[in-house]
Amino acid sequence: MAESVIDNSAELPVEKKTSKLAAVSKFRELGLLAFIVLLCVVVQTKNASFLTIGNLTDMITNTAILSILALGMMLVLITRGIDLSIGSTLALSGMIVAQTVSVYSGLNPILAILMGTAIGVACGVVIGFLVAKIGILPIIATLAMMNIFRGLNYTVSDGQWISSYQMPTSFVSIATSKIIGINTLVFIAIIIYIAAFYFINHTRTGRQIYAVGSNPESAKVSGINQTKILLIVYSIMGGLSGLSGVLWVSKFASAQGDTASGYELTVIAACILGGVSIAGGSGKISGVILGAFLLGILNNALPLMNVSPFWQMAIQGSIILIAVIINTLVKRGVDRNNLLRRKI
């Protein structure tokens, strides 16, 4: 009797199913860019001065500090963390540097920037230690340190302001000077983003940051040192906050106890608008830049359109809520798509 032979050479057709919401994630930044362009066109029809070179330059300059902080916050959010202390870190760094330059007026601006950054890194290391080593939840650790850093700021300043006339011209001019024709704040932001792009996409540590946020258990099994990654992330966030403190004080020519109070919420909003997932594991530099720029446009455009300050807050909040809903739906679609691919 002839043996029956089963031909395995021909594979059975497999139906490929994908979620439409998952496809949206590939074009999220493009959609955000389209929304920004549409918003600019609408505002321009209401106020012809909106798209002038001078106003666009002001918007980009005013968004520089926000974009720097949003980059650091993106890294924190990717690891499933959060940092509510950045406003206080910014203020503390700015105050100490302002006091220093008011006494040592000949201090090189570059040294002032490095000093502020070092103060921020120290603050970030403390938070990273609490989160990574002690195991305190990020929201609890940073909420506590937010109040501690703010209290230290009031303590070292004794509740006094440092005004522009107490600061040397060389320090105040940091925010107004130019490097190769580009405003210094914008130039610094560009350099930071280029360095961050390389760090995230072309280094092992950068890839491990995403791995820790995507699946902490799998990352641990694969041998990734999560403690080290979290310490690095919060140190970077602290360093960028300290740097921003120097730039902030130089820009506004004033150091106060309540400087940047509540600004951490604006930074988080920029990340959310840029598509960074608060659940961790997802976020792109391009999205963060667009998210920060969108907030900058809203802050500039709404007053030009004579929108009430109360409505300005409501409009910004509504846009953020819509972004959160979209991010949630997209993540749900991506998760569903992954399950469909695993289905045999």
List keywords for this structure.
mainly alpha, 14 helices, 344 residues, disordered N terminus, 4 strands, ABC transporter involved in vitamin B12 uptake, BtuC, two-stranded antiparallel sheet, globular, 72% helix
Describe the model.
By secondary structure, the chain is an all-alpha fold. It has a single domain (49-329), classed as Orthogonal Bundle (ABC transporter involved in vitamin B12 uptake, BtuC), CATH 1.10.3470. It is built from 14 helices and four strands. The chain has helices at 20-24, 28-46, 53-78, 86-103, 109-134, 138-157, 169-172, 184-202, 204-214, 216-221, 226-252, 263-273, 285-304, 309-342, and strands at 162-163, 178-179, 182-183, 254-255. The strands form two sheets. The chain has a two-stranded antiparallel sheet. The chain has a two-stranded antiparallel sheet with strand order 2-3. A hairpin with a 2-residue loop joins strand 2 and strand 3. Helix 3 (53-78) packs across helix 12 (263-273) and helix 4 (86-103) crosses helix 11 (226-252). The two termini are 35 Å apart. 39% of the residues are buried. The model is unreliable at 1-16 (pLDDT under 50).
